[in-house]
Fold this sequence. Notes:
It is a single chain. The chain has about 70 residues and is α+β, with helices and mostly antiparallel strands. It has one domain. Helices cover about 30% and strands about 40% of the residues. β2 and β3 form a beta hairpin. The longest helix is centred in the last third of the chain and has 22 residues. The chain starts with 6 loop residues before the first strand and ends with a helix.
Amino acid sequence: MHKHEQMDIFFLPTKSGVIKIYSYGFSSGDAWGQVFTEFNDITVTVKGYSQKKAIIKSITRLNDSLLNKNRDI
Length: 73
């Protein structure tokens, strides 16, 4: 029996670009996965067991990175 990895891709359009979310793994209840979130030149990576929680955490970290970047300008 072969293991098949699964990747989910989400595109969220915004006024200033597109947020791209790549979710990899999470095939079974005990398998961990990774979520990559990209927006312009910022990329955030989160690992976890729950796909929903990992996606929320990655979007939260992306938001924090964007706020810190805007604060520095």
